[in-house]
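Long-time lurker. I teach an intro course on protein structure, and each term I like to show students one example going from raw sequence to a predicted 3D structure in token notation. This year I'd like something fresh instead of my usual example. Would anyone be willing to generate the tokens for the chain below so I can use it in lecture? Attribution to the forum is fine with me.
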Amino acid sequence: MRRTLVFSFWFYSLTVCGLSTGPWIVPKLTHDKQNESLSKGSSVTFTCAIGDPSPEWQFLWYRVVPFRDDLPADSHWSGRSTYSLELLSDSSRGAGGSYSLNLTGPEHRGFYVCRAKKEEPVYYTHHSNPLILWFSDPDSTGHLSVNPNRSALFMSESLSLSCAGNGTDWTLRRITDCMEISQCPFTRGASSWENGTCHIKAVSHYDGGIYWCQSESGELSKGHYIEVHHHDAKAYVIFVTDTRPTIYDNRFQFEKGDSVNLRCVVDSYLVGWRFLLYRVVPFRDGLPEAPHRSGAARQSLELLPGSSTHAEGTLTLNPAAPEHSGLYVCRAERGEPAYYTYSSPMLIWIKDSSPQAFLSIQPSRTHYFENEPVSFCCEVQTNVTGWILRKYLNKGRGSMAFPLIQDSMTFPLEKESSGQKAVYNIVSLNTSDNGDYWCQSESGELSNIVSIRVEKKPLAYLYGPPEGWLTAGDSVSLRCSLGQYTSTSDPRWRILWYKIVLYREELPTFTDKESSSKYSLELLPDSSGDGGSYTLNSVGPEHSGVYVCRGEREQPVDHTEYSTPKLLWVIDPSPKAALTINSNRTQYFQSESLSLSCVAQDNASGWSLRRFTFYYPSSLSGCPFNNTVTRDQSTCNISSLDVADSGVYWCQSESGQYSNAVKITVNHNPRPTLDVSPTWPAKGDTVILKCDASGSSSGWRFHFYRVIVPIEEVLPSEDTNFYSHELKLSENSTELLSDSSREAGGSYTLSTVGPEHTGFYVCRAQRPNSFSYTPYSNLRHLWVKDPSPPASLSIYPRTSPFFEEFESVSLTCEVKGNSSGWTLRRFTNHNKASHCAFKHEAVTWDERPCNLMLTFVDSGLYWCQSESGEYSNAVNISVHGQPTPRLQVTPNNWGTEGSSLTLTCEVRGSTTGWSFLWYKVVSPKKGFPVEFDSVTRFSYSLELVADTSMGAGGSYPLTPASPEHSGVYVCRGQRGDPAYYSQYSPHQLVWVTGPSPSSWLRVSPNRTDFLQSQSLSLSCKGLGNLAEWTVRRYTSGELSDCPFNSRSGTWAESTCNISSLDTYDSGVYWCQSTSGELSNAVNITVHEKEDFKSRLEVSPNHWVTEGSAVTLSCSVGAPFPGVRFHWYKAVPVSEGLPLVSNRGRFREAKYSVELLSDSSRGAGGSYTLSSSAPEHSGLYVCRAEIEELAAYAEYSHPVLLTVTGPSHSVWLDVIPSRSQHFVSEPLTLACKAQDAATVWSVRRFTLSKELSDCPFDKKSQMLDPSTCNISSLTLSASGVYWCQSESGKRSNAVNITVHSGNVILESPVHPLKEGEKLTLRCLGRKSVKSNLSATFYKDGLHVANQTSGTIMLPNISKKDEGSYVCEIEEKIRSPGSWVSVRVAPGNSHKDNMRLKTNLIDNFGTFVAMRQEMGSLDGGCTTSCTQARRRQCAS
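-- Reply from a regular --
Happy to contribute to a lecture. Here you go:
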């Protein structure tokens, strides 16, 4: 029976072969016998699908044939010049989208493609993917033999294919996956044809395809498909030893007696590999030659004893001996005949205490720099001859570069009394000389091994001189770096410092690499800066100049190149000469001229102009600097400046004196910007052209031009960088406007414009003292509306100037007069211009219009233009992306049987100009395009609803709604003729509930609200064969079946298990049968854990007086059902109590929580203290619980509550007595009590939310039972401190701020009384001057300036209360410090209110800090003063 081989390949194959499809509609070609073998007489039916059910499409069918000139140019398939597409003679019978083919003869073999078209105007889709049909003749005498006889080959394997049969005129032919039909020898790769056999030396991916033999009379043998794997297997040798080897840079050395396992591995996913292990030996006849030969000597491979029996590729050397030293190679092979690959050689070395020869190196070390010489000396102790120097370079297993074996020429031997000696010299080392070296005789004896490492010589880099000028007395540090080489890492290196001076014979010479100027180097005093830095403590004008450094090594003697020079300049108030500039400015543009003159202030002579330029590399030179510079006595003239002339210029005398210095900056000429207003004037209007250069029109002369050649001739070519704006303009392509030259202002007025002014304009600028111009500006069009243009451009369909991507338009130029040679031209927004063309010729409008399928790059200006320069009207086309409609369900997605639901579809918020199609998502269905969601891995089809025309206007009613309407819907918009389609809308679920369904969905646990990471099971229950049911869901517009993802979903026995829910699992779930029946639907909501967090607030205030009512409120972020709350107090970490930890600003904070005895009375979320007392003071924590979800929320952040009484029996002293402190300062806190018998602890609550007792950490300790000392403050110590007894009594609290800046404000720790004196002092670190001149502010308003840094306010009152800040000269401010003032004793009610306010204010800064950290909700309270609120808000 005749068999047919059917092979289809998709876009992936085309991509490999270098083909692409572009943005057009691409049909999908399939056939109905995809997985079947066909025989002669069978029928194959092709289907061409484009995903659009419109009946207006007609389908065309083609066969791929060798290129033919008689076929239309647009039939050249995918731009491949070697093939054409031949329209099948009976193509019309497949116009409906299906084409049947009876397999009767060889003419049916080959590739087929299809495409679709619409009429009026004609629009074609892209060609489809190709399908191949191929079959042999059953009665053929031809026979194809393949060696190796397998279908899968690796890249680079060899392949032989032999043809035999009656007669001798047989040839080998093939059709490759890249659609190339050819005969051996093939044009790609290295192949040959000899005696009926085709030899392919090394296959590549281009050789994949079908091969067959064909006789001259047309007989065909059976076909053989060859698949070429792109994976190229590599083998490696690795070593395993029971004792620890000495490993140096991936080279392995072992001790004598070690046990060493050699193992061969291959990085291939294929199995069935066999391994052979070899040792590399000198070349011998009869042994296979080593494939890794490099250098003069040939080598052989000697199979290791027993290796052939070790299929696992492992061999043991036990005990290892010196004779085992050498290079080892393994071979991995598989298949029959074998495909094999060799590993790179790996070196193994067994140390020998008495080698046959000894290799030494001079100079004797292991590290060298490039260009150093070395000598290898091999001293031979025996009479063995033929010694060579061998080198092994290993760049690491697994890298792209593998070990190399290189040999020197045979050593010239010199007789000595003790034996023989050979020397090999390398005159100049480079990094390729890295490796292991040894001597080896022709019979295989080895010397010891020597390893060397060659590196590039370090470069010196000089850092440190500031860019600006220094003043006398400043301190400056220069730093010189040698990269990794420092006096610490390599003590042999030291740094030398030099100043470049005028040339003197007795000093070392320095030649500037850039200017070739010759100078001398003066070694700085005390120059040996071993640490890499050199400090000038008090600089003066004599230190001005250019400096360099370099590194020097004593053993062995060596030095680096000099660093790039750096300029240091110190301002001289009385320079010996003055440098003057003719234009009296320092900013210039390219091509301007400049004159600089040296004017001596005394009788000093020999003044000359010098400069130091910034462009890398920096350069020091004297006038004249180059051939554009001339010198006239003491004046230097630069005729045409360049950006490389930017730098510092000064005058210098022969004796080394300096003038002032001037920094000159030369900028690139800017590209002007042209603006035309208005762009679309009416005839007779006034138009202004405005040219602007470098953000300003000052100092420029402007010229305005009109472009007089076709616009595409002046724009950058297609191969120009997309970002290039350089226009190809010249005097021949532009016309200078009359009276065009304009000075400052840069505007040009066209008073009364007419059609003759229509066109494109540019401008450019010129400096008054320069002969060169800036580049041309951007190109701007000016289009004068002509009521009677000589031609009219029309667009069909004309919807608006706004079109959608991939929409088809037809542009036609209607000529009104007798003029000829009209073409359609355009100027796109991407700065490209072109004309509409067919067969690469301009359109003549008598033939046909210009048809475009629009893309983004087609946005721009379109017009018709005659060869004589006349213009039509212009149209601005703007192309938008293919729109995605919005589908909505009203009144909602859930309805009951008999209710009314409506689907509405809009495109860009409107239904105007669109008609709509309505689809329902169904299981993959024959005859319908299959969609695939790459995210959910869900396949489905879109079935056009039967009465879709009901919703053509944008609304589709489901009235009355029934359960059959349940499902997922999409819509799509269309407009125009031929129809243009929008994208499909996102999915929308519609669910209509009716009587109890025959099957239902059971949810376990039986609830609809879940938290992240909880588990869920969904089971289908009811009638029918449950194997035909699945759980389906709709989540965030995505439809999917269980299992929903590989991480958490499993499906077994009609049950879907989700082991770990996430928020994206929220959605509607139901059961659905293969026939489309539905169960009930369940809406599952998965809440974020972030929503289930306890949040604690206190009302009315965190600080209250005794007897006040306080309410603590606890909540969670989402309205969970059945929430109850638990209440705790935070205490220092205690054994037996729950431990809470959270990440604070500086470190992780830990504390314990103790459940309140009456916690249950706050279960509803509010815990009220109706009459608070001092013992209620403390840190409170709450926690939410949802019993239904069996879940606890995290503990809330702690909230501080302080209840104050009339007075404290204990107070906290702070030493030093201030609230602000520098980092690293010491601090002492002491509890002073009236009751000496009570034991008091110092407790704190920090910004890191850490609650703890002293000692807080390793830097703190208790000096006595009531005194805490912190030896060195850190930022994490900022917070509130107080004293607390075991019974819960508390002292006053103090806010401590630790600052890492340079300035703090010294202010009172405790509140002051009215009438007392307030002293504020601005304190600086030791690095800041002690006598600070400071400015003081209160509540952001200026108070006073004090040169002493201290301000004193005698007899203060309540109005002096507020937030104070100080600022020093460098605009460095201290943190804010709140000063509280208590009123004098009086009205008890007022006293209590004042006390309450003072306590609040005393902790205001801390509250503000806590608020900033997000740990306190409530912010500033109504009790705050106005100034306090401002501080909180800041």
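Some talking points for your students: The two ends are 91 Å apart (CA to CA). Residues 1103 and 1399 are 7 Å apart (CA to CA).
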